[in-house]
Design a protein that fits this description.
Elements: H1 2-14, H2 20-41, H3 47-50, H4 55-67, H5 72-93, H6 118-131, H7 136-152, H8 156-160, H9 164-167, E1 173-177, E2 183-187, H10 190-202, H11 224-238, H12 246-259, H13 264-271, H14 276-297
Antiparallel strand pairs: 1-2
Length: 303
């Protein structure tokens, strides 16, 4: 059984080009199911047993996860991982299982994110200077990172994956490799380029053409956690709400474009969403803001 799981993981890495985080999640989900199967049936599953797993076992697995206090979102992802695994063994080992297709995913409530007030984003520049007074190049780095997230709508992983060669010559667009290694082109505003170039001019190391653009204090590639701490420091310094995160900067980019008249398809392309339904969440955010304005300002709202 372990050989089959290993082959599936290699398939995700080499064929699907999934990120290390996604692959680790798939592997953990499958391991969780196989361990439950052993508890449920009293014996570890053989490859042939996978085809005989029925809806009772699958539903008992989902109920077990609920008893363990795991969220609907986590369980929905786990079920998606299992479907992918079963599709793989059906193709490569001719092990068929119809029961997995009869199991519905738990409904996951989709919380609407909150956008950051543009004034607060503007204030971040002065806050960065105040926090990093002893290290001007760190201040320049942090502001360039904030502007990339806010001005281009990048994910943290996308911003930190940029290399010097990607920004050489100040191109009109950045070639971004997003989730699933999907490539998209993102326009860059002059103010963003100005911040990036100032950071590069001040940076004391990491100047090789193939080096990662963003570097730590010790000269190593900047990690996602370091980037999160940058925004955390700004949030604490400016006493901003807890929802002010790196993702909120990307979210603010999206809501600003939508409010400015951008169509959903264009917004989907800029954000790198694989599904339009994900992008459509921003219309709900926009309608929530409109409803709030109506409730507080329209003379007939109280009728």
């Amino acid at each position: 059984m372990q050989n089959i799981v290993t082959e599936f993981i290699q398939h995700l890495i080499k064929t699907k080009k999934y990120s290390s985080h996604t692959v680790a999640a798939y592997e953990g989900d499958i391991d969780d199911f196989l361990k439950f199967y052993e508890r449920f049936n009293g014996t570890p599953p053989l490859p042939c047993d996978l085809g005989r797993v029925d809806t009772i076992c699958f539903r008992a697995f989902l109920a077990d996860r609920q008893r363990r206090g795991l969220s609907h979102k986590s369980t929905a992802r786990t079920l998606s991982s299992l479907r992918g695994f079963y599709k793989f063994i059906a193709t490569h080992y001719d092990i068929q299982n119809e029961a997995i297709g009869l199991i519905s995913s738990p409904k996951v409530p989709r919380n609407l994110s909150k956008a950051i007030d543009p004034i607060d984003v503007q204030n971040m520049q002065d806050a960065i200077r105040a926090i990093d007074t002893q290290n001007p190049w760190i201040a320049a780095r942090d502001w360039a990172l904030v502007l990339l997230l806010f001005g281009c709508g990048l994910r943290i992983s996308e911003a930190l994956s940029l290399r010097n060669i990607d920004v050489r010559g100040r191109p009109d667009v950045l070639r971004i490799h997003g989730k699933g290694n999907k490539e998209r082109l993102v326009p860059v505003l002059p103010v963003v380029w100005d911040a990036i170039e100032r950071y590069i001019d001040l940076r004391p190391f990491g100047n090789d053409i193939n080096d990662e653009l963003f570097r730590s204090v010790r000269g190593l590639p900047m990690s996602p956690r370091m980037a999160e701490k940058v925004v955390e420091s700004l949030r604490n310094y400016l006493q901003l709400p807890d929802y002010v995160t790196p993702h909120a900067l990307r979210h603010t980019f999206a809501t600003a474009l939508l409010a400015g008249g951008a169509d959903l398809r264009s917004l989907q392309e800029l954000l790198g969403h694989s599904s339009l339904s994900t992008t459509q969440l921003y219309t709900k955010v926009n309608m929530a803001e409109i409803s709030n304005i109506y409730a507080n300002a329209h003379p007939r709202a109280k009728d």
